[in-house]
Design the sequence.
């Protein structure tokens, strides 16, 4: 019985990814003759040619394409194994790593962390960032969950799953000087300055659609995905802020002018398929909601 030599597989993968033996040799700092020998030995074990030469370039054969798919999965699983096994504290507690978009309300993250602590003793780490950055970390198993204001399908990724955990109505808030706008709301918003979420946000597009349908023209004066910054700018009187109405949310320095009917901010919990699941992340995917 022949055993697969993972060094052979590693060198083959490097040659395929770098596009040739010369570039792989330079990256790995291994001589070209050594790489050529390792590749031939792997082909002998498999009984198939993994590359063919076309116009002085190495091109994967059908067998080579299949072998590369397996190699990528094998080394991905190896990375996952290392991350999962090393990812424990000295007290042997589970480490839950959560990624969150800047636009996710902080009290949502607080609720998620509190729910995690109820499930089992754990350490919770929270990383904020852009959707593409967080997704890369999720797929690399450096994050267990992402809290997002759009579902995984919009990220166009396979083996990534999303669950809606909240659908919150949106109201407009402003400092005391905008208090008179409660009357004749929402038409009273016409021509008024707004602190808005950025254009890549689903909520921003829903807001634009609402104002267009109502024939209301607003003046964007600032854009940010950070809801805390939106509130600070609105409190300072810079403009009005459309914010989700969270349960028990109290805006001490802001006046609620009115709800935007039919406009909601939906939040999603996103996870990626793993061979070894984080048990707390799996439970949260099953049972967490607001």
Sequence:
């Amino acid at each position: 019985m022949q055993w697969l030599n993972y060094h052979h597989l590693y060198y083959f993968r490097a040659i395929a990814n770098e596009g040739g033996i010369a570039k792989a040799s330079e990256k790995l700092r291994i001589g070209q003759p050594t790489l050529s020998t390792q590749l031939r030995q792997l082909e002998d074990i498999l009984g198939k040619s993994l590359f063919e030469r076309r116009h002085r370039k190495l091109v994967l054969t059908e067998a080579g394409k299949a072998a590369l798919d397996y190699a990528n999965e094998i080394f991905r699983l190896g990375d996952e194994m290392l991350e999962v096994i090393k990812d424990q504290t000295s007290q042997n507690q589970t480490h839950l790593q959560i990624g969150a978009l800047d636009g996710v309300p902080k009290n949502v993250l607080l609720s998620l962390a509190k729910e995690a602590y109820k499930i089992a003793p754990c350490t919770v780490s929270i990383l904020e960032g852009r959707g593409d950055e967080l997704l890369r970390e999720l797929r690399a198993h450096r994050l267990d969950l992402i809290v997002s204001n759009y579902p995984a399908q919009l990220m166009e990724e396979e083996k990534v799953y999303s669950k809606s955990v909240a659908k919150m109505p949106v109201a407009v808030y402003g400092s005391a000087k905008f208090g008179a706008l409660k009357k004749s709301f929402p038409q009273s918003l016409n021509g008024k300055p707004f602190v808005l979420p950025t254009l890549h946000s689903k909520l921003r597009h829903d807001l634009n659609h609402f104002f267009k349908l109502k024939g209301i023209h607003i003046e964007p004066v600032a854009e940010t995905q950070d809801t805390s910054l939106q509130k600070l700018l609105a409190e300072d009187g810079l403009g009005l802020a459309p914010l989700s109405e969270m349960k028990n949310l109290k805006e001490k320095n802001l006046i609620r002018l009115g709800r935007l009917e039919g406009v909601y901010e939906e939040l999603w919990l996103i996870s990626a398929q793993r061979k070894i699941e984080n048990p707390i992340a799996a439970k949260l995917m099953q049972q967490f909601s607001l």
